[in-house]
Amino acid sequence: MAGAHHDHSHSQAHDHGHDHGHDHDAGPDPMTKRVQALEALLVEKGYVDPAAVDALIETYESKIGPRNGARVVAKAWADPDYRQRLLEDATGAIAELGFGGRQGEHMVAVENAPGRHNLVVCTLCSCYPWPVLGVPPAWYKSAAYRSRAVLEPRGVLEEFGVRLPEDTEFRIWDSTAEIRYLVIPERPAGTEGWTEEQLADLVTRDSMIGTGLAKSPADLPAEPAA
Question: Which residues are catalytic?
């Protein structure tokens, strides 16, 4: 382990000695069990469509929840002074935009660059910066992701559809209850002069975890004809 931020090259051994402050084998908490039981009852009686529930959760996880983080990244892309503050004191810089709270304390921002790619994982549970990324996706909490992200980050990224040059250096950041991470993805080409609002539309949840890249301008829906 190199430094206090749990930075790992993908070939380094992982140190699991830090305390995440969670009971990792306790299973769902009582409230989660009650919610699951209620959902199962509503589905059984035909009051709830499981597909609709899944679609709503996916929308919140991937679009609505991460909008705060997208605004942070967009401001960092557009404002060099803010970017520097974000890299030096992410918690404070994020708070400038009104985002923060118990799950967003002690934030650290790490920046992608040509030849360097950052990936965030929580190897022992699912510590996640809720104030900027919303609800953690199911795959982030899975044992497969938590173990493989450290051992074979390139393979994990390829399964997400991300292929990077062979000489790319991977930096793996292990979130804990004390420190949580936000990846600043590379700004896409062709966005010179864009407003922060326009730039935020290019930032995805996965790009702020490191399992994806920011969208390119071509990925956005075409403007309707006047």
Answer: 122, 125-127
Query: What distance in Å separates the CA atoms of residue 223 and residue 114, rounded to the nearest whole number?
Result: 30
Exposed, middle or buried: residue 210 (CB in 10 Å: 0-12, 13-18, 19+)?
A: buried
* Cα–Cα distance for residue pair 146/142, rounded to 1 Å: 6
Q: 216 is written with which tokens?
A: 């390119």
pLDDT tens track for 39-91: 677 778 777 777 766 665 565 555 567 999 999 999 999 999 999 999 999 99
- Residue identified by tokens 């922060």 is 196
- Pull the structure tokens for residue 102: 């118990």
With H, G, I as helix, E, B as strand and everything else as coil, classify residue 54.
helix
Type of residue at 19: D
Amino acid at 125: C
Query: What's the whole-model pTM score?
Result: 0.75
Cβ neighbours, 10 Å, residue 165: 8
The SS3 of residue 218 is: helix
167 SS3 class: coil
